[in-house]
Each structure stands twice: as C-alpha cells, then as structure tokens.
Specification:
The chain is an alpha/beta fold. It has twelve helices and 18 strands.
C-alpha cells in the first residue's frame, strides 16, 4: 500500500470578521464566504504548467495532460457539485528548475522553486495554477489562496482573485497524471484531492491510525476523497459537510435534530431529499455531528461500504491553533476544520462509522435507527436529546415548560427553519401556523380536497386542508383562508374548541367577550384551557393577537 503525501498550505492573510458565522444561515461553517465558498461556484480556470526538475524521470506531455484533466477531473466535480462548480484546465507552459526530484518520503516543499518560476512566467488572469513536476511522485500539495476579505484586524491586505497574486496553487508529481510503475494507472485522485484543498476542504481522519515516526495519519477514511490514502483512481465523492461548505447543498436541504423523537429522510447525492442531518451540541457552532448518506451511485460505486456515515466537526480554535496569544479567538476555518469519523477508526480500510439498513447506533445521547432505503433515500428514526435545551430563545419565559412540551411532542418545529433552534416566543401566531399547530396536535388526517385558493404553495397548505376537512375552520366569506393573517385570542378560542370537539357553552364567563366566538371561548375556559388575561380571570382580551408562547400553553393544556 502506498500512502500519499498530500498536504495543503494556508496563506499568510487570514479572514477576519466580527462574526465568523455571519455568512452561513445555519452557522455551521466559519468564514464561509471568505474561504469555503470563495472559489467553489461557476468557472474555476486552472492554468496547467509542467516543471522540468534537473533529474526528473517522468516525461510529461502538457497537451495530453490538459486533455486528460478536462476529460476526467472536470466531469467528476461537475457531478459532485450538481453543475455548480466548473473547473476548466488550459495550457500554460513549461518551466525548468535546477532542483532535484523529491523522494516519495520527503516533504513536497522542495518543489517551491517550481512555484516561483511558474509565477514569473505566467501572463496571469486565471484562477489558479496546476503545476505538474516531471517526477514519479504520487502526491502533491496545494494552497487555498488569498482569502477575501483577507486581513488581520488593523492591517488591511489587498484581495486578489486571480493568479499569481492570489497565490492559489496545486503542485503534483508526474505519477498523478501518467502511468508510472508499479501503479497500473495514474494516481488521479491526488489531483482532485488537492483541488479539494484549494476550495477549502480538510482531511477527515479518526486519529487512531499512525504513519511513520508515530505521527497520526490523516488518510484513514476510505469513504472520502480528502482522506482515502488507498485510492488510486478517481473514485468516491467527498463528505456532505464539504459539499455544504462549498455552497453545493442548500440550507433548506439540511435537517437538525435537537430533542425529541422524529423521523428524517436523508438522501445521497443526486436525490431531492435532505442531504444532511445535523446533531448540534451545547458547545454551539464550533462542535457538532453530521450524518450523510452514501449509496452505490456514480463515483461512489467503488466505496467499501454504503449507508449513513457519521462525523464530528470541530472548529474550536485550539484544534488548529491558528493564532498567537492575544489574537482573536477565531474558530478553525477552511481546510483546518477538524472532521473525524464517529466512532474513530483504526487502519486505512475501517468503515465502522457507516451504518446500513437495520442498524441502531448512538451519537452521544441520541439514538439513530436506519429504518429503510428507497431510491437512494434513507429513513432515520432519531430519538434523544442532542442538546440540553430545545430552543435558545425561551429561557426564563413563563411558558417555557409548555414550549418544551409541545416541541417534544412534535407540535412545533421552531421558527427559523431549517436550523430551528429558536421558537420566537413573542411572535404573533399566523393563521397558517395555527393550522399546523392544530393538525400536529390533534393528528388530523390528510385531506383529499384543496379547500382554499390563496394557500397554494404555502408551507402550511397541507395542514390548512387537514383542519378544513375536520371542520375546524370554514375560512372567510369570500372563500379564502388568508394564511398570513394573524390570529386573535377570540379566533383562537374557536379554533381550539372545534379541534377538540367541545360543545359551545352559553353564558357570560368574561366581561369583555360577546358575539360570534363567545360560546367557544366559554367552552375552552370551562375545559381549563384558558384562565383569562387579567389576574382575577374576569377578562379574556379577545381582540389581542395570540403570541407563540401563549399558544404553547393553550395547546399543552388542551392536550392535558
């Protein structure tokens, strides 16, 4: 087995911002726009150069190499990115270096002279340079280039986007693009691996496999382009967290499990299902676990295992020690992000972090069951608490216990999808939200009729039809439902009374209630669902809008 020497370099200018997570709506990737998604969309033009070392032994035809890369590496990334990332390789030229050929076991930094000569020879204007040395070296190294905006606080740097000013380089040995015995074919995966680093992807490794000198090997994950040290051909994709960091997985295709018991559908690349399930931790954005799906499709056909794979992402500043004492406590970013298999795997072929159908496994306090696989989509049954608190914005709220109760029952999912770590307790309940609250709370079955013309495409449309079919809502006299309208306390009384099947109650229970909703308000008061809106319980405040925290208590009482 040949272990690659694949490394990456971090440029001197480092991204800075007041909030490292502000570019990512899900707050999963630090400095996402400045680093991870900077070069990963649209055309990415690589100028290919051959560096002739003084005693290099591998003849490199630059035209054939460019054609080979466009025929093999470009389609790989087009598939992996669903067409969002389009690397293109074009001919640069040939430079000569007096440096000797580096041995396989040596570091690749002896190829620095090649970089300098190419930087001096190029006309520039491309996105990066891919340098092939005429050696039998099977690995390479790369840099993610200048970061934008790239500065230390108080020391602004320019933000160059094109080579050579950007410093964005991939350097590989000749054995990565031509056949050099004993390998039966070029080690092309090394080229794709280094391009992965050049768009900010890290290695993934468990930390239990050791290479020469007792050093931890970072190439022990046979499921990942960025780690598969045993790979030769261009096979297998990278992890879903890398695809998300590059901007190739939409935030709406990410699910979060915080607490409770739910089922999730997680699909492999090419499916329309959610692509990633995140298990957050109380540490916040710096540490969390992700679950992705792998099935025998496309470049993944040759993987050693299929199922859902589990990784821990750690961006804590101590992991990468990017800054000296006194610098900001920024998280790790780009290819310094720590990605490790859960559980950690020893050896270069281990796949114990990959779980097939029928498997049941734990991630911290969360239990995951892989229920089934249909058309590339796994159904996961997940239970347990990933975090100690379901929502981060209801602490101290008088309705907090009831908010947590309806969340655990699956009646509310949160107010900021797909992250859903907030409940927005002071927000007013819309008629669309009311439909979903009631449909989930009382389990109304799907409806076969589309009752209202003004909710088409609305998030709550299915649940609006469910409560209409159950007779809980009649809509307005003009035939609309008006899902974006807010619900008053009077309307809420009728919604809940009908949903529970409570008989109307006559009388004057509250001094400020009369008219259409009075009998239903009396009914929910008699059932103990409302206590009124003043300390003595003599008023109901029917015209006030229902807040989301109040709604939690109404529902919790209604369900006992």
């Amino acid at each position: 087995m040949v272990i690659l020497v694949l490394t990456s370099a971090v440029p001197a200018a480092v991204a800075a911002a007041d909030d490292p997570w502000e570019d990512d709506p899900l707050q999963l990737i630090a400095f996402r726009d400045e680093v991870s998604a900077l070069y990963s969309s649209g055309q990415d033009v690589w100028e290919v150069w051959v560096c002739q070392l003084s005693d290099g032994s591998v003849p490199i035809d630059i035209s054939a190499t460019v054609a080979f890369l466009n025929a093999e590496v470009r389609p790989y990334f087009l598939t992996l990115s669903s067409g969002l990332y389009q690397p293109t390789f074009r001919t640069g030229g040939v430079v000569t270096s007096p440096m000797p050929e580096p041995a396989q076991a040596l570091t690749t930094w002896s190829l620095d002279d090649c970089e300098e000569r190419v930087a001096a020879a190029t006309a520039g204007g491309v996105d990066g340079a891919l340098i092939v040395a005429n050696t039998d070296f099977t690995g390479g190294y790369s840099t993610i280039g200048a970061l934008c905006p790239g500065y230390y606080p108080g020391y602004p740097y320019a933000c160059p986007s094109t080579y050579p000013d950007s410093g964005r380089v991939v350097v590989v040995g000749g054995a990565t693009v031509v056949e050099v015995p004993p390998l039966a074919q070029p080690r092309l995966n090394a080229v794709a691996h280094e391009i992965g680093h050049a768009i900010g992807w890290p290695h993934s490794f468990g930390g239990l496999t050791f290479a020469g000198g007792g050093l931890v090997s970072e190439y022990d994950n046979p499921m990942d382009l960025m780690s598969g040290g045993v790979w030769v051909t261009l096979q297998g994709y990278t992890l879903v967290i890398n695809r998300y960091a590059a901007g190739w997985v939409a935030p709406t295709s990410v699910a979060f499990h915080r607490k409770g018991s739910f089922e999730y559908q997680i699909g492999s690349l090419g499916t329309s299902a959610s692509q990633m399930l995140v298990l957050p931790t109380d540490t916040g954005s710096s540490v969390y676990q992700v679950i992705g799906a792998r099935t025998p499709r496309g470049y993944d056909l040759a993987l050693p295992a299929f199922g859902v794979e589990v990784y821990e992402i750690d961006q804590s500043s101590w992991v990468c020690e990017l800054f000296e004492s006194g610098e900001p406590d920024w998280p790790c970013f780009g290819d310094r992000r720590r990605t490790s298999q859960l559980p950690a795997v020893a050896g270069y072929y281990g796949t114990s972090h990959v779980h097939g159908v029928g498997s049941v496994f734990n991630v911290g306090n969360v239990t995951v069951e892989v229920v089934e696989l249909v058309d590339g989509v796994y159904t996961l049954r997940v239970s347990g608490d990933a975090v100690t608190q379901r929502f981060v914005d209801d602490n101290g709220n008088q309705h907090e216990a009831n908010i947590e109760t309806i969340a655990a029952a699956g009646i509310t999912l949160g107010c900021n999808p797909p992250l859903n770590n907030r409940y927005c307790p002071s927000g007013s309940v819309t008629r669309g939200q009311m439909a979903s609250f009631l449909a989930r709370a009382f389990g109304f079955p799907p409806a076969s009729v589309d009752y209202f013309p003004d909710d088409n495409g609305n998030t709550h449309e299915d649940n609006i039809n469910r409560i209409a079919a159950a007779g809980v809502t009649l809509g307005f006299s003009d035939g609309t439902y008006q899902p974006g309208g807010y619900v008053t306390r009077a309307q809420m009384g009728s919604f809940i009374a009908r949903a529970m099947g409570l008989a109307p109650v006559a009388g004057d229970r509250f001094s400020d209630v009369s008219g259409t909703h009075e009998a239903n308000i009396n009914a929910i008061a008699q059932a103990g669902i409302t206590l009124g809106c003043n300390p003595t319980g003599t008023m109901y405040c029917p015209d006030e809008l229902v807040r989301r925290d109040q709604m939690a208590s109404f529902l919790a009482r209604a369900l006992g």
